[in-house]
Specification:
Strand content: 15-25%
Shape: globular
Distance between the termini: 38 Å
Order of helices and strands: HHHEEEHEEEHEHEHEHEEHEHEHHH
Radius of gyration: 19 Å
Low-confidence stretches: none
Bound molecules: flavin mononucleotide
Mean pLDDT: 97
Number of helices: 13
Structural class: alpha/beta
Length: 352
């Protein structure tokens, strides 16, 4: 166990991005030497049979994954396994390296357990990240590769960025995620339209056997989200991730005027969009729910609503490294209490 309540005040004295760099330094250590971390992994990586499921031809030992944005450059994959994540989504990676938006660009709303970020896809670019993945390949837990266009790429040329990324990362992970839902790249969310999505999936599916998922924003009506995701699945999407951060600044007391909100204040909004999508697409595609998940109960609610998998990012910042173990242990108890032998029986229980 880690006494995060003792560490948190010190970490929270630092600028959020500095605190993230400190965490990254620690979480890179298992790359150099795994041995001292084995004890931690043994206690924190929960792989009970009741949580196992096969998706995309891979075994997911537990359903709790790391949401995109924390490990943008794939430097912490082993560290994330050590923390207990059943899968890790790296990125968003763009074709060329980019520095992202000017700092400060990440803020904490501590009382509201909410992060506001306007990072703008700061990342080392496809070449550097593919090199790193090749060095560490294969991975013991499934890896998602979240891809996005460069800031300076026009909307007309955006498709070329995604195609370039799919070619670059083919076979280096277990699934791709098309990110056209970040609020921090001007014009990106405008790509959430039928013409772009149908053309992208047509071209992309011809290039790779890796499953390709679409990640959507929470800032559209439920009707629009359902229409968009149904269309994406009809065009070949292998799954939907709902949701990215929200630009509904009314959710916090003292918002900054840039970026997107994640964490506790996103919980309801993200769930409502997810549920609307699940009502239409449960059983027809793979569904991943992300946004404000901070407990086993909340993760279980998403699973019963139709989520095959869930992801967490902000919760890790506010609740610390024991959180993933606690969510997985809690899920085991909840599944057993409802009489299930395996998580697959609970997925979509509310839809039946
Ligand atoms: C600092 C930060 C950076 C993020 N960067 C990305 C990103 O690069 N790509 C992406 O698809 N989502 C990104 N996200 C969104 C998360 O993956 C997730 O969808 C969102 O934060 C909601 O989950 P949460 O409430 O558990 O944080 C980012 C979130 C945060 C807080």
């Amino acid at each position: 166990m880690i006494n995060y309540e003792a560490i948190k005040p010190l970490l929270f004295k630092l600028q959020p991005e500095t605190a993230h760099h400190v965490a990254e330094c620690v979480l890179r250590l298992p790359n150099i030497c795994q041995l001292p971390f084995n004890f931690f992994t043994t206690s924190h990586f929960i792989a009970d049979d009741i949580l196992n499921q096969e998706i995309f031809g891979r075994t997911f030992l537990n359903p709790v994954g790391l949401g995109a944005g924390f490990d943008k450059n794939a430097t912490m994959i082993r560290g994330m396994q050590t923390l207990g994540f059943g899968f890790t989504e790296i990125g968003t990676v763009t074709p060329k390296p980019q520095i992202g938006n000017p700092k400060p660009r990440m803020f904490r709303h501590v009382e509201e357990e909410t992060i506001q970020n306007a990072m703008g896809f700061n990342n080392e670019g496809a070449l550097n990240v593919t090199k790193r993945l090749k060095k560490r390949f294969p991975f013991t837990t499934p890896i998602g590769i979240n891809i996005g266009k460069n800031k300076l790429t026009t909307e007309q040329e955006a498709i070329n960025d995604y195609i370039h990324l799919i070619k670059s990362f083919d076979k280096l992970g277990d699934y791709f995620v098309i990110n056209i839902s970040s609020p921090n790249t001007p014009g990106l969310r405008d790509l959430q339209n039928e013409a772009f999505i149908s053309e992208l999936f047509k071209q992309a599916k011809a290039l790779t056997d890796m499953p390709i998922l679409l990640k959507i924003a929470p800032d559209m009506t439920q009707e629009d989200a359902v229409t968009l995701t149904k269309m994406a699945v009809a065009c070949g999407a292998d799954g939907i991730i709902a949701t990215n951060t929200t630009i509904d600044y009314s959710l916090v007391k003292n918002p900054k005027d840039i970026g997107g909100l994640s964490g506790a204040v996103l919980k309801e909004k993200s769930f409502k969009i997810f549920e609307a999508i699940a009502k239409e697409l449960y059983g027809k595609t793979i569904l991943i729910s992300v946004g404000g998940i901070d407990s086993a109960e909340e993760a279980y609610k998403r699973i019963k609503a139709g989520a095959n998998l869930v992801q967490i990012l902000s919760g890790l910042i506010f609740h610390g490294p024991d959180m993933i173990m606690n969510v997985n242990k809690g899920l085991i108890e909840l599944l057993k209490a409802d009489g299930y032998d395996n998580i697959t029986q609970a997925i979509g229980a509310d839809r039946k």
